[in-house]
């Protein structure tokens, strides 16, 4: 919202769109193959929530046996968006007003965000898309993972810093990455789009299916029955259900609350 207000303070004829791209790939499985599908979708930000959900625009689709080259895949899409930003369009031939479209936000999961920004994934050093925390390598089971601790305050990523890192990588081809940036990202060519701030955190996977689901698993796991936080017995779950099932969500929310007994079958937005 802050980005939108900054760019449209003096542009009453502007419309903003929100970009969504599922570049981690949904797989369509047939008898003898598994082919990934990569859609690019947009929605008009100014529409009412219900209308926005019902009017998702499919702008691009990759379907094949391998991942697409993102710079090639996104180039015509970015060129069209820049044209809508600079030239705009008329709703009909008699319309005296020209509507211009600005792309200000992109919502993707953490797996898709890294290749779109052309940075390391969260498993690599400086793999955070939002700050310069390098993370630390930690052993987990037979392997390892990267942890991003919050004991030190690291600076946030910025568009200017990302461009400097990109230029450094281009000037020094042998350099693998600088602050996690691996090279040129095509989205840097998209007008008004901020390669750092225009991406939003992955709330669904990080919070709902990540932290919240993990906490519920521990709270209800029989292995923790002697712990003070355990709520896995029928009495406590029924007590929670007595409040949970009384919730009457508005009509825009299509799924009503389900019993905590079935939390393993909950969809992401139910958490």
Description:
By secondary structure, this protein is an alpha+beta fold. Helix content is 30%, strand content 18%. It is built from 7 helices and 7 strands. It has helices at residues 2-8, 49-54, 70-86, 110-117, 159-171, 203-220, 234-244, and strands at residues 14-21, 26-29, 34-44, 57-63, 100-107, 136-140, 143-147. The strands form 2 sheets. Strands 1, 2, 3, 4 and 5 form a 5-stranded mixed sheet that branches. Strand 6 (136-140) and strand 7 (143-147) form a beta hairpin. It is globular and about 65 Å long. The two termini are 25 Å apart. Mean pLDDT is 82; it is low at 23-33. Keywords: Kinase, Transferase. GO terms for molecular function: kinase activity. It comes from Frankliniella fusca. This is NAD kinase.
Query: What Rg, in angstroms, do the CA atoms define?
Result: 22 Å
End-to-end separation in angstroms reads 25 Å
Mean pLDDT: 82
What sequence of helices (H) and strands (E) makes up the elements?
HEEEHEHEHEEHHH
* Count of DSSP strands: 7
| Strand content range | 15-25%
Main beta sheet, described?
Answer: 5 strands, mixed
Shape by Cα distribution: globular
Helical content stands at 25-40%
Structural class: alpha+beta
| Number of H- or I-type helical stretches | 7
Low-confidence stretches: 23-33
